[in-house]
Design a protein that fits this description.
The chain is an all-alpha fold. The protein contains 18 helices and no strands. The chain is globular and about 55 Å long.
């Protein structure tokens, strides 16, 4: 008994000491992911042969989808491997992969090489679930929510700084004489990718020096030893069963539709902003787009840090869900109606609507799903796993759908032109809001309504 208590104390002490390192590693991972967003469309344009220019939107969608698909396919594998050999080595292998494949992406001289690099980066970033498992290993039930929140904050900060850095460092030879007639001139997007690789290398050094193992050796022998295929089959089975469940299926459908509509935007936003004003676009540069995505990240952090608590206490998660869908839907639908003459004022306004809607929706949907699952006696791990799997499908299909719709409509006349993909985002948000209105109001949320009326 005393040995078990001593072991628990050691693990939790290690957890407290490792939290800062894990926060840093996760944030730098997300910076590396976000760095490519502002220039991805421009890189595709540079690599697309003249006879395939019409397919640029489709290639942008494929590159974005490949990353999410790789994460989805390989997350169970990394999770199973970490159960057997420990969390620390798996996290470090992921950082090595990031270092290699971000550089490979920056050096890509063909679309297929870029697609391969992006897929492989997703494979090695599929170990982000291992970071959550590490937190679970070293946290008591009372500490878990707060520590998971730290990981969420790392995601938010990484996604804020990543696009800004990526935009500012793109095509450096055109901005600074230092980079002229160098490899950064012939590969204009290598510098931000190299920075992402160096950050991952720094994370690797920090993790090697300061991140202890969280899973004791004796616990690994008791871990689930299922291989990849049985885990995937079980994940699919759980997802289908949750979609058939009357109690939790509705909120999962709400989340799927929201995620699908939101990720369509990921593929088409920069395709629109970089388009020439004579065709309806804004002629934004990589740096301009990086600043926009940084503002989206800052607005999201502001929403989740300062607004979501008071709003939830006043209205309850259930009442916030349709509101969030409507706010995000309005912002997404209005994106292509931005006028070049007042581009910054208008695009910042719609970006604010999108980020606030998303910032309210994500914690509200997770909170509501958790409470309704518990109230109906479901295993929380099964429900959350099913939601994450189905959300991954939406993140895979969203960018691919956006790129395909853009390719099919961009050269046509209104209403089926470059507006169409954004209209589709709005339609998905509308259906998500309608389904959210059918969600039950949980008993303790009735008090929120009374408080609001008073």
């Amino acid at each position: 008994m005393s040995e078990n208590l001593e072991l628990q104390s050691r693990v939790q002490d290690a957890g407290r000491g490792a939290l800062l390192v894990l926060f840093l590693v996760t944030m730098i991972d997300m910076i590396g992911f976000g760095i490519v967003i502002p220039f991805l469309t421009y890189l595709v344009e540079d690599l697309t042969p003249e006879n395939q220019v019409a397919n640029i939107g489709l290639w942008v969608g494929l590159l974005m989808t490949s990353y999410s698909a790789a994460q989805f396919l390989f997350s169970p594998l990394w999770g199973a491997l970490s159960d057997r050999i420990g969390r620390r080595p798996v996290l470090m292998v992921g950082l090595v992969g990031n270092t290699v494949f971000f550089t490979m992406f920056g050096l890509a001289n063909s679309l297929m090489l870029a697609l391969s690099a992006r897929f492989l980066a997703g494979v090695f970033n599929g170990n982000l679930a291992v970071a959550r498992a590490y937190i679970g290993d070293v946290s008591s039930p009372q500490q878990l929510a707060t520590r998971m929140g730290l990981i969420g904050a790392a995601f938010g900060l990484g996604f804020t700084f990543g696009p800004f850095i990526g935009g500012e460092l793109s095509d450096p030879a055109a901005r600074w004489d230092l980079f002229k007639d160098t490899i950064f001139d012939s590969h204009p997007y290598l510098l931000p990718c190299a920075v992402a690789s160096l950050l991952s290398l720094f994370s690797l050094a920090v993790a090697y020096r300061s991140l202890p193992e969280s899973l004791p050796l004796e616990n690994r022998a008791e871990s689930d030893s299922q291989s990849w295929l049985p885990r995937m089959a079980q994940m699919m089975k759980n997802s289908v069963s949750m979609l058939k469940s009357q109690n939790v299926s509705l909120i999962i459908w709400v989340s799927m539709l929201f995620t699908f509509g939101f990720t369509i935007m990921h593929a088409v936003f920069i395709l629109y902003t970089e388009m020439d004003p004579s065709k309806g676009g804004l002629a934004f540069s990589e740096a301009d787009n990086g600043r926009i995505f940084a503002m989206i990240g800052i607005s999201g952090i502001f929403t989740q840090a300062l607004l979501i608590g008071p709003l939830t206490r006043r209205f309850g998660s259930r009442r916030l869900l349709p509101f969030a869908c409507v706010v995000a839907g309005i912002g997404l639908t209005l994106v292509p109606y931005t006028q070049a003459d007042n581009a910054w004022i208008q695009i910042l306004l719609v970006a604010f609507l999108i980020s606030v809607g998303n910032g309210i929706f994500q914690p509200s949907s997770s909170s509501f799903l958790t409470r309704i699952a518990k109230s109906n006696g479901y295993e929380l791990g099964v429900v959350m796993g099913a939601q994450e799997s189905l959300g991954a499908f939406a993140r895979i299909l969203g960018p691919l759908t956006g790129g395909l719709v853009w390719t099919l409509t961009v050269s046509r006349g209104w209403p089926f032109d470059y507006h169409t993909a954004f209209h589709l985002c709005g339609v998905m948000m509308f259906f998500s809001a309608l389904l959210a209105l059918r969600l039950p109001i949980l008993p303790d949320e009735d008090s929120h309504s009374t408080f609001a009326e008073e």
